[in-house]
Amino acid sequence: MRILIVDDEEVALNSIKRLLKWRGIRNVDTCNNGRDAVARIKETDFDIVLLDLLMPEVDGLQILESTKPYRPHTEFIIFTAIDDIPTTVKAIRLGAYDYLVKPVDNDLLFLAIKRAYEHRGLLIGLSTTAGDNKSKVPPAFSEIVTQCPQLCSILSYAQVMAGSGNPIMITGESGTGKELVAKGVHKAGPMPNGPFIAVNVSAIPATMFESQFFGHAKGAFTGAEAPHFGYFEQADGGTLFLDEIGELPLALQTKLLRVLEEKSFYPLGSSNPVWVDVRVISASNADIERACQEGNFRLDLLYRLKSVHIHLPPLKERAGDIPLLASHFLRKSCDNHKKIITGFSQEAMSLLNSKDYPGNVRELAQIVENAVLLTDSNIILPGHLGMASTNHSPLSRQLCTLKENDEAQLVYVLKNANGDRYKVAQILGITVRQLQRKIAAMKKNPQWEEILRDI
């Protein structure tokens, strides 16, 4: 058992540390301020954190909120000198296992530690003494390709919490696999055979929100020639996945909150309520807490959606997963495009490993698929990856307009496809005629004219 004690009072730190050692717990670390505690917890997989609530600068609740998503299996026990029920409720919502009022009885403290440690073992699907399966992906999340212990631990936590049926919020950078995790939660949840309806909230016009989410009756508005079942009714008995929830306009958040609280709604143009049993999973790559502070997102809606919080690490933090993912996407792309490619050259794999992926797994998948389309050999070489250019032509510019970026991409694909217009059009997802028009327009630009003349 590895324990971290966080308290700004040195006397309290030393006292608890001595007490734990006297009871046979030797692996005990201490930290006397909130900022260092956040860094320590993110870097180290502690079993239990004993956390003082009242500290200057960064308090215990801020530490808990900042680190629990990164360490879902670490159990937090809060110490406080004030027995305050609203604070207790907030701590539990943020993921604290227990909440003890100072001065803490020694036996009560050790009982809380024992139970928290057993609970941690339950969450990771292990006994309290075994830890051999930390790098295994739970069955419900088998579509996620990883050997990263941190991500496997997060997925194990997600599988356990999925059984509650409570709303779950998934956060992480774009391309980290939030929808795949949502599908895994659905499979591991209480209604796995029900529908899974995925909705990109940012793509729904505000004027269409009620009709799309709650449906409408026949004749509700001009053109409503038949009744329409909205997303909530479509997801009845299953899961509704709300992607990019942070993009929901403030005026519409009240309507969503009401449905979550009452589990019923009125379709547009109808006076008959519809009752639904829907598990809501939301996702965002934005900072929802900051949006709440700025008045752009309702705090009560956030609490309703964030009963459980799962944070996905970016690809750059998933050590060793890039070769595994690249091989997976290579097999998948070869199957889709009917090609036989045995693998990557050593130089190509080194290039993939060295890249910083702002688009995360989605970006890696696109790079590999483009490489499969470009190569005519049985192995992927550095030139097929679109990452090896070192000259200072417009092809290598780092800061450019979207138009310049599109033009540079077109020329790169054109060069690597040896001028094959049909193949280039296929890769770019446009018609050959559209490609020819783009090339003709680009030839009028002096920076591209000479390059295009040689292709």
CATH class of the largest domain: Alpha Beta
Shape: globular
> How many structural domains?
3
Radius of gyration: 27 Å
Helix coverage percent of residues?
40-55%
Per CATH, the superfamily of the largest domain is P-loop containing nucleotide triphosphate hydrolases
Overall average pLDDT:
84
Question: In whole angstroms, how far apart are the ends?
Answer: 64 Å
- The structural class is alpha/beta
Tell me what the CATH architecture of the largest domain is: 3-Layer(aba) Sandwich
| Uncertain residue ranges | 126-134, 388-398
Placed side by side, the strands forming the largest sheet appear as 2-1-3-4-5
Sheet with the most strands, sense and barrel status: 5 strands, parallel
Hey, roughly how much beta strand do the residues contain? 5-15%
Number of strands: 14
Q: Given the structure, what is the number of helices?
A: 19
What is the CATH topology assignment of the largest domain?
A: Rossmann fold
What does it look like?
The structure is a single chain. With 455 residues, the chain is α/β, with parallel strands linked by helices. The chain has three domains: 3-123, Response regulator (Rossmann fold, 3-Layer(aba) Sandwich); 139-313, Rossmann fold (3-Layer(aba) Sandwich), CATH 3.40.50; 316-453, Helicase, Ruva Protein, domain 3. 44% of the residues lie in helices and 13% in strands. It contains 19 helices and 14 strands. Helix 13 (321-337) crosses helix 15 and helix 17 (421-428) packs across helix 18 (432-442).
